[in-house]
Amino acid sequence: MRVEPRFREQISCLVRKVRRAKALDQALSPEDRVAFNDFLVSVVAVLLSPRLGERCGVGELAAFSSEVAHRHRAEGRPVNDFVVEEVLRRVHGVPTLFCSRPVPEYAVSAAGGAVVRYVNNTDPAVATDIDRLLDAAEELHRRRTGR
Q1: Residue 16 belongs to what H/E stretch?
Q2: pTM given for the model
Q3: What is the DSSP code string of 42-56?
Q4: Alpha-carbon span 131 to 109, nearest angstrom
Q5: Alpha-carbon distance values, 31 to 21, 28, 88, 116 (Å)
Q6: Which of the 8 DSSP states describes residue 94?
Q7: Mean pLDDT of 102-120
Q8: Is residue 52's pLDDT more than 90?
Q9: 72/30 Cα distance (integer angstroms)
Q10: Which pLDDT score is estimated for 1?
């Protein structure tokens, strides 16, 4: 699946803390949000690879999810630990938590955004290297989706 330039722009704005990120998020149609979230999973995978590695267990995912959610809530932003963990499980190919009912796509976007924000706030190289990271995420996305 092709990555739309506006998806890259939305992530870049989020990392650079530009208000346009919110407007781009709000402009996503339900179909666009599904495609955006698929790319967001690739972005999160690239961002977390140095931190969690490619092979980590459910315990590490749960602990990192709690850490992200705690920091996010400390900033006055609501987030659900379990949805953050769900995004991380998608990244690492671990069975999902929510088998009977899928997580709403807007919640996946919010949780993925929380992870991006957390990594950006704890690693100054993310903002500096955002274009390279997005290129790597786009390449991973192509490999994951076969397009």
Answers
A1: helix 5-16
A2: 0.90
A3: HHHHHHHHHHH-SS-
A4: 20
A5: 18, 8, 22, 22
A6: P
A7: 91
A8: no
A9: 25
A10: 57
Query: Which tens digit of pLDDT belongs to each residue from 18-51?
Result: 999 999 999 999 999 999 999 999 999 999 988 8
Residues in the chain: 147
Do the beta carbons of residue 13 and residue 47 sit within 8 Å?
A: no
CA angle 137, 143, 145 (to 5 degrees): 100
The distance between the two most distant Cα atoms of the chain, rounded to a whole number of Å, is 41
Long-range contacts of range 106-109, CB-CB < 8 Å, 24 or more positions apart? 106/33, 107/80, 107/83, 108/37, 108/40, 108/83, 109/25, 109/28, 109/33, 109/36, 109/37, 109/40
**Mean pLDDT for the stretch of residues 91-120:** 86
Residue whose C-alpha is closest to residue 44's, from 93, 113, 139, 98: 113
**Rounded Cα distance, 109 and 83, in Å:** 10
Residue 135 neighbours by CB distance under 10 Å:
13
Kindly list the distances between the CA atom of residue 46 and the CA atoms of 20, 74, 102, 126, in Å, as whole numbers in the listed order: 23, 25, 24, 11
As given in the structure block, the two tokens for residue 30 are 């339900």
**What one-letter code names the amino acid at 100?**
S
